[in-house]
Amino acid sequence: MTTLHLFDLDGTLMYGSSAPVQISHQLGLSAEIAALERAFGAQKMEPHQFSTAVHALWADLTPAHVRAAFDGSPWLAGIRDVWREIRERGDYCAVISLSPSFFVELLLEWGAHAAHGSVFPEVPFTRPVDTAGILTPQGKVTVADRLCERFGVSRGDCVAYGDSVTDSVLFEVVPVSVAVNARPYLAERATHVYEGRDLREAYQLVGVARPGVEAS
Q: Which CATH number, 3.40.50.720, 3.30.565.40, 3.50.50.60, 3.40.50.1000, labels domain 4-15+76-213?
């Protein structure tokens, strides 16, 4: 059986942080993004409102800022090892995140078969955000369904990894889910729960990995 592994980014692949936070740090806007993150976490902002706000906040953003944010982010250990193992097994791995596409898609460099984020204009910004391209929790399921069709699998062949309420809709439609450093709401709805900083350990919860991907 072929398996499609679906990974959230913020708080899941990235420990205790998010792409918007890391990008904003590069611009000296930590306090501003913290306020927006609190509002979004309290569900006082919808995804399209949050994305419009961060687009305005990042008026001076350059590709160099994005690369520095990506390279300096607190990633879990072993991401590339796990994705290499998944590929060697003939399975698939993809990232689906509400964060900006220009950041999420950098994970293709690490071996993901696909990476989908909220569609932002290219950096530096010369155009506004088209809110039709901003992902929502339900939109994650829509993307997952498209990926299932692309890779010739079904929802029943998927494993989802996430950390927050924005992952709950996807967790509801797949048979196997891993709550990674997750809030209690999501952990209670997952088939597996992982606390730690090594994706290899989380991956081992859903299948026996070969020695090359064992956590150390």
A: 3.40.50.1000
